[in-house]
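stage 2 :: seqdesign
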């Protein structure tokens, strides 16, 4: 991910991620003003920082970073990371998310996974909440994330237990997700999510501001939260206690002028106190489903992405389809892009009348992922097979 013209700059940023904190209020503006390469050269040579340091504490911090820089070889760090499947993305690289330019400081990102970070973050939503989530919180987080992923939104979260884990798992069922960690990407933290992180890497990405070999520390999680808020245009707080770390993410979203949303919970639940406070103070918008989230984060005048799958207009008739027996298949219209079928042809998929009678015929057809023909004319056609060339016959049988 290092371009030839920016090799020295990217190499210096690799070194800075290993010796300096990601969100230092003095070093960040210094790098933005003078560039990472001059700052890194000054650290290696033991020279004073460019410009005048603001305080004696800054001078002591500079000396400590200078000593640590002599033990870091950026080229060797890049090689060892590449062996683990980890790449470095610097500002200006094709994979760099443009929204991160609004952060006061971000040296670069370490990324692992088959997805493209920039493309995943173009249409994304952050879903955060308490680690000790209630069954209500995990259910709402999973439902929101699954519906958002079904609308082609990537779900960004912190990979922790509770709401984060439920959001990632649900998003993986129909889309991709981004995990932002507070440690090196060679460390699975929490360890119970090692399998989840492996699944995420197949379609999405794992992101960190720390290089490989770095273990998580308590302050790093608060620093990580600002990255979760910055990567997306909106943040949803599903559950948050009075002192939950999700409220820290909400504060970062407000500072970055992102859309902040909160899910109301039971008034008796301690895990919803933070959400209710955000709603009471007017800092967050109330959302209860994915449609509310999409309405708030999609710009005005731009059509919101719909659900994936064939286009299915709701017909203007109800009841039993005319001319259909109890075992007649439902008639569906195949879109031109539907695989393994000729464009513009009528096809059938078996949906027993018993299922139609108990659940409603339209619900049954929607569950099958198909659409009836005009006027409900059953007609005869080829049987619609599984998606993407699976070759399996897809049917919805009644109970």
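stage 2 :: out
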């Amino acid at each position: 991910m290092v371009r030839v013209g920016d090799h020295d700059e990217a190499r210096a940023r690799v070194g800075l991620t290993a010796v300096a904190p990601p969100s230092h209020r003095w070093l960040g503006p210094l790098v933005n003003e003078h560039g990472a390469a001059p700052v890194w050269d000054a650290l290696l040579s033991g020279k004073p920082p460019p410009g005048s340091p603001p305080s004696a504490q800054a001078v002591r911090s500079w000396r400590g970073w200078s000593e640590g820089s002599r033990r870091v070889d950026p080229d060797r760090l890049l090689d060892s990371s590449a062996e683990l499947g980890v790449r470095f993305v610097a500002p200006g690289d094709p994979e760099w998310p443009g929204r991160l330019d609004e952060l006061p400081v971000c040296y670069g990102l370490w990324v692992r996974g088959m997805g493209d970070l920039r493309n995943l973050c173009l249409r994304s939503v952050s879903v955060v909440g308490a680690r000790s989530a209630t069954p209500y919180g995990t259910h709402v987080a999973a439902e929101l994330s699954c519906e958002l992923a079904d609308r082609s939104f990537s779900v960004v979260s912190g990979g922790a237990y509770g709401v984060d884990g439920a959001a990632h798992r649900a998003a993986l069922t129909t889309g991709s997700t981004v995990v932002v960690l507070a440690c090196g990407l060679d460390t699975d933290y929490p360890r119970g999510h090692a399998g989840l992180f492996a699944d995420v890497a197949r379609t999405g990405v794992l992101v960190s501001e720390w290089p490989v070999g770095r273990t998580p520390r308590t302050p790093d999680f608060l620093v990580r939260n600002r990255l979760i808020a910055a990567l997306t245009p909106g943040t949803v707080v599903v559950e948050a206690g009075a002192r939950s770390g999700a409220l820290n993410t909400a504060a970062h979203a407000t500072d970055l002028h992102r859309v902040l949303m909160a899910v109301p919970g039971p008034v008796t639940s301690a895990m919803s106190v933070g959400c209710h406070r955000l709603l009471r103070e007017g800092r967050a918008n109330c959302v209860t489903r994915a449609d509310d989230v999409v309405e708030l984060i999609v710009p005005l005048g731009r059509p919101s992405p719909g659900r994936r799958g064939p286009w299915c207009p709701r017909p203007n008739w109800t009841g039993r389809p005319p001319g259909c027996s109890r075992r007649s298949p439902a008639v569906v219209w195949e879109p031109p892009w539907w695989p393994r079928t000729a464009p513009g042809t009528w096809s059938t998929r078996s949906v027993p009348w018993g299922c139609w009678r108990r659940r409603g015929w339209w619900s049954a057809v929607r569950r099958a992922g198909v659409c009836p023909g005009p006027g409900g004319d059953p007609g005869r056609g080829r049987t619609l097979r599984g998606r993407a060339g699976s070759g399996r016959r897809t049917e919805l049988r009644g109970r």
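stage 3 :: structure notes
- The longest strand covers residues 124-128.
- Confidence is low (pLDDT under 50) at residues 1-5, 309-322, 324-399.
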